[in-house]
Amino acid sequence: MMNTKTIAVLTSGGDAPGMNAAVRAVARAGITSGLRVMAVRRGYNGLLNGDIYEMNLRSVSDIIHRGGTFLYTARSPQFNTQEGVQKAADRCRQMGIDGVVVIGGDGSFRGARDLTGAGIPCIGIPGTIDNDIASSEYTIGFDTAMNTAVQMVDRLRDTTESHDRCSVVEVMGRRCGDLALQTGIAVGATTILVPEVPYDFDRDVIERMQFTQKTGKKHFIIVVAEGVGGVDKLAKDIEERTGIESRATVLGHVQRGGSPTLRDRVVASEMGAKAVSLLCEGKSNRVMVVRDGRVTDLDITEALQMKRPFNKELYDIALKISI
Asked: Which domains does the chain carry?
């Protein structure tokens, strides 16, 4: 049935809630399929340094509800070199590893593609809170991060409303505004600023605030994606132009942590199990993705070349209802 007899799993890049659920699924699906499953700690650095151990069914007990990654993660400049990739591939051969499941973002997938090219079959699983993987409609960690951001902004609103203030809130998302857009809609933000849509300060911030003031609104939430930045200056400029006391808040890495939501646990589990099935079928250089609401797989090289469309329709809806 399969050529693969020993597989490994690692998490790479930024941590995301749900990664542990994916690791658990890989371990359990692999072992129940008759495979040896090796855990690699600290990403590609673990492959280079031999920080690898064999898992059993109980190795992944009580981790499905935990945020972060119990395998740890790290950036690996050495692995980004041809020599580093070859060293990692040699390490896999020395330890009898026939395939690797890589959980992470685009950078992790490039590493998986390179490792496949060096003779070690790899399958990628998208894990990043930014939801910025072009090939997939959804990435593990996104739902949890959104819910965390919504909870934080809801708490900010309590004090913002009490003092008739404007809160300018920065959420994560350097290249992708999905987290800002959906969080902004969920909290009723007056303005949502994302990297994909250029904004005009007067039209998109001041005039919207002034319009809502005329309808009786006295406090305001502005949600800004990290890639737009400048929240401190934005808050200062708003206060100078409107006379409304304005405060900037950067949610930062709190968005990465916390127990994963049901959606992240289920999607991660499905992707982990299907990644093992692909390796058992002798497939490699594939990445698990959500397409049309279903978990499927694509060629990694093809996936990395895709451009991610921004949901302008949803953005336009936000403009209409958050006023």
From this structure: 6-141+260-304 (3.40.50.450), 146-256 (3.40.50.460)
